[in-house]
């Protein structure tokens, strides 16, 4: 059973959502965006799930999940140009589409960009960003978007891995502390919870990853892309 995070809830440090939020905060310095949506695709499904939502209404998110991502010819065009960083003006006739006219422009979004992340099994997630100016994105902004997309692709892969293992955001956060060699008491002090609560998280992590001890859990987490190797 997969564990799907609440895309609007506070992000646990070290979790895929926490890393996504950190990446978006850094990106905002170079590209002052007004709304963003990051999704990952549920395994063995063509359905995307929101991983992080920033100032985007439920109606707009639902339009993206129900139509734009799975069915829009314009997003298919983006998928087919996977090696390019594109703004709206780069997608032929995009401003004339239903998504642009009846959803984005109505909400005051006049420029933006979308990405599709690819894995061996196909699309593994997407990223959509809206800004409020009408000019083409500058070369510097496109470069910053590319750098952010590389980081977010790793985040999406980690989210997929966590979902397949059934790990919660908090369990991924505890895994990061385990990778740093911290004891249950040290983790409890860091997270402001009881030591027994941490022990319960660790027991759950071992069971979900199918391993016998903390070292094996960290090794498995690194192999799955849940934890950076340089933490261990």
From TrEMBL:
The keyword Iron-sulfur does not apply. Residues 160-225 form the HTH luxR-type domain. The keyword Transcription regulation applies. Coiled coil: none annotated. GO terms for biological process: regulation of DNA-templated transcription. One of its GO terms (molecular function) is DNA binding. Keywords: DNA-binding, Transcription, Transcription regulation. InterPro entries: Sig_transdc_resp-reg_C-effctor, Tscrpt_reg_LuxR_C, WH-like_DNA-bd_sf. It holds the Pfam family GerE. This is DNA-binding response regulator.
